[in-house]
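Researcher:
Attend to token order:
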Amino acid sequence: MNKLHVWSTSRDYERTTNDNEFMIRRRNSRLLIKDTDDLNSLDPIIGYAQEPILPLHDACVPLISIIPDILHYVSIALEHTPDMPSDDLTRDESASIRLYTMEW
């Protein structure tokens, strides 16, 4: 039997004590399907590898209406990424990691 668990983002901070240590855990919106052998639940991501790889700037253009100033942050990430990153990634790949880890 499949069990479906959904957590929401409503005022979701839990504080627990464990030997005088406080742990604050923020709940994020997640959809977890436990104990499933049903591969149909993976359908939405199948085929993503055949999608063309776009430059970081072009890949973020559809996000303009969703994420304020996204192209500004993309520019910052690209400016701070060398043309030949030492991590064996392309400049856009390395800049995308930088963008993902930036504080906004």
